[in-house]
User: Fold this.
Amino acid sequence: MATKENSGIGRQDRLRQRILLATASWLCFSLGSWVHRLCSHRSAGLRINRGAWEEVDPLDAFLEEELHSDVDAEAQSRIRQILSASVHLINIGSASHASIEDNSYSGVIAEFCALNLTEQKENHLDSSPLFQDVVKSSRCGGGNNILRADLADIAHLARTFDARYGHISSNVPTILDLKGAVFHESRCGATLASKALMAINPNKNRVCVHPEPAEAAMKVCGEGYPDCTVTAAANLMRDVVYLMSRSNDQKEGDAFFVFRPEATRTMETFRTAFPTTPWIFLYRDPTRAMLSQGKAPAFTMEKSAMVKAYAKKKKYDLEDITDTEMLAVQLATFCLSALRNFNDAAGRGLAVPFTMDLGEDLATSIFPIHFHARVDREGERRIEAVDVEEGYAEDGVLPGSEYVADDIVKDAVKHLLEKQYKLLEGSNYNYKDCQRAARGRDVLYCKEKDKS
Assistant:
């Protein structure tokens, strides 16, 4: 998107206006708190018209300043809807000429549509928390009601607009605070965690569960980053999450992301993009993890780069591997990816086991202490009201219940998955140990275990 060219006269007029606005702003900050409050409310988008101040909409002023004069009305309307956050980022794709480098990217197309988040907020107990279901229920599927823009250009415009006017006008979208992220092994409490995050404060929280745009950015370089660097992927992800975290609902303030199991394999992208954001990895007993998947695993069984590497390491031929063994390999790669990231995260990441106490652990420790998300008594009651039995019984294998595993499952667990489970249980960053060490503290402190 080209920048609007300035004539000499136009430059002089704008310079005079900016000097006057700067002078007015200085007066506002110098003459006392009550004047400052008045100026903060009225100074956004001020300009001189025939010698008098007039107030203009910040977005009108911004588009006049930034857009080239030959941008047509349709394009301006599209840009206006995106910058005002009346539409939401729902997908990203690459053009044939796409390029992703460490310091820049190009050719990435962003798709926006107006999402109806009301159902998820008002009926968080029963409605599907999945991002794809929110998109579908908002009639954004099949190319309907879609606005498209170059991602790099629109992200730059959004950041510039927010920075220029966000501190002086209430008519600029809110940038939600990314409080935390959830990764998981699959069918080990992710649904419960997703609904509980919304239950903390449905009006304030935006919970993106399996968010396709962010996950596409995470894996853009491939597992192991053969196509580009983790830095390049992180730069792309930062823009994607930024656009997904803009809100025109003044009641919203916090954002949480719950990623699908496959995203764990490129978790380094997330950690590089948001190094100070806390995250958790939900896991469970390996045999129960296997049985919970049944005949329809809750993730793709693709033979990805990490799957191939792990099968080769364990001397399994992917051409002859059984479905049960492939399932164990897939689950192992999720756990291995989390384990690979714990030490580098230095306490930002926690391994959280799936137990019957998970709901209480989320409400009393993980959300308020690790995610720094305030949970008041009403929030605790709403979390208690979350259909815990649905979250536990969705796979038919309750924590602590009896189960029967045949020899094929037992053998796959023993050779492919059990070691990862034991490493998670013994990790310095396992929530069980952090919880015991955190009593009386305002942060979760993970005490290093005695290795002797």
About this structure: The mean pLDDT is 84. The two ends are 61 Å apart (CA to CA). The longest helix spans residues 8-30.
